[in-house]
Amino acid sequence: MTPDEQLAHWINLYNAVTLQIILENYPVRSIRDIRSQTLDPRGLIGPWRTVRVSVEGQRLTLDQIENSILRRAFNEPRIHYAINCASIGCPNLAARAWRAETMDADLTAAARAYINHPRGVSIDSRGRVRISTIYRWFAADFGGDAAGVLTHLRRFASPELQARLARATTISNYNYDWALNGSN
C-alpha cells in the first residue's frame, strides 16, 4: 500500500473500532465510562489499553494504533483531526471512510473545521486563548510548546481567527468535553 493508503487504513480501523466499542457498551454517557482491562500507567480512564483487534497476527489496542502506528509511523499532526474518540470534544467523525486519493485535502479540511470551531479554539473578549486539551496531550505533534501550537493553529485558522491569534503569545486554558458525541 502507498503511505496514504496505509494512513487511510489505520484511521478507518481506529474509528471503526471506537464505534464498535460504543455500540457494544451503549448506552454510556462517555467513552471514559468503558474501562480498559489493562491498568494504564498514565492514568488514562477508558477503553484505549484493551486489545480490540488483530492485524496480521498482531493484537492491538486503540492506544497502540494511535501512538505506535499513526503518530510514530506517519509523523502527521493532522491525524488528530481524523481519529475520533466518540466525545463531543473530539474533531468530527467523517461522514465517510478516509480515502488515500483525497487524504491531504481531507486532513486539511478536518484541521480547518476543528480549529475554527469553539471546541478547538476560542478567544474571549479579553484576548485569552482557550484551546482543546488535545493540543496539550499531543503538544509534541503540534510544535512542542505553546508557540508551536499557536503556529499550527494559525496555519489552519480562518482569516478572522488568524487575526485574533496573531496577537496571542500564550494559551490561557485548555478544555475538553468527554460526553458522548451521539444523538438522543
Report what the structure shows.
This protein has 184 residues and is an alpha+beta fold. It has one domain (3-175). It is built from six helices and five strands, in the order αββααββαααβ. The strands form two sheets. Strands 3-4-5 form a three-stranded mixed β-sheet. The protein has a two-stranded antiparallel sheet with strand order 1-2. A hairpin with a 2-residue loop joins strand 1 (51-55) and strand 2 (58-61). Helix 1 packs antiparallel against helix 2 and helix 5 runs antiparallel to helix 6. The longest helix has 23 residues, at 3-25. The termini are far apart. The mean pLDDT is 93.
Write the SSE topology:
Elements: H1 3-25, E1 51-55, E2 58-61, H2 62-74, H3 103-115, E3 121-123, E4 129-132, H4 134-137, H5 146-156, H6 159-166, E5 173-175
Parallel strand pairs: 4-5
Antiparallel strand pairs: 1-2, 3-4
Helix pairs in contact: 1-2, 5-6
Q: What's the short story on this structure?
A:
With 184 residues, the chain is α+β, with helices and mostly antiparallel strands.
